[in-house]
Amino acid sequence: MKYYKKIVGKRLYLSPIHTEDIEQYTAWINDSAISDALGNSSQLFTIEKEKATLEEMATSGHNFAIIREEDDKLLGNISFFDMHQISRNAQCGLFIGDEENRNKGYGQEALKLLLNYGFNTLNLNNVMLKVFSFNEMAISCYRKVGFKEIGRRRSNYYVNGEYHDDVFMDILASEFVYRLP
User: Fold this and answer.
1) Cα separation, 47 vs 50, whole angstroms
2) 1 belongs to a structural domain
3) What CATH number does residue 65 fall under?
4) How many angstroms separate the CA atoms of 23 and 74, rounded?
5) Does residue 180 lie in a domain region?
6) Backbone φ and ψ of 140, nearest 5°
7) How many structural domains is the chain composed of?
8) What's the pLDDT tens digit per position in 146-169?
9) What DSSP designation does 101 have?
């Protein structure tokens, strides 16, 4: 078995990262639609570089592969990072790899699963994320889950000949409403 059902939802489950997915992740991270949205457009990602990243993600932190339940297909990943247990806060990030799987609610479900884990298992109180202002699909997803905009860093990200704002959003445990299926 390649994936393990650590956190199970309706259509998805979150599994520990599997390093054998290196070629898929390398293809995704070199896709400009993904690298632009993640802020990595100016970087080159080789198999070797991505292997080191995946090995680190697989052995530390709270990093998950997003897996579709019906066919065990890898859709992307989602993580907590910069976690502070005393202050009970963390940042999160996610992406859905193939365009055909975007805008289908997978990111929203994965984020709800991660937040449920963060608030009810890890005892977090505040989860924050950063998204670029041009990524309206992601901002809409985050709002549907319950994130609120808390500020912007104006004209901070330059890509494709234009400047864009960093949009900071967060959600508190008391604002999060979700029950596992």
Assistant:
1) 5
2) no
3) 3.40.630.30
4) 12
5) no
6) -60, -45
7) 1
8) 999 999 999 999 999 999 999 999
9) G
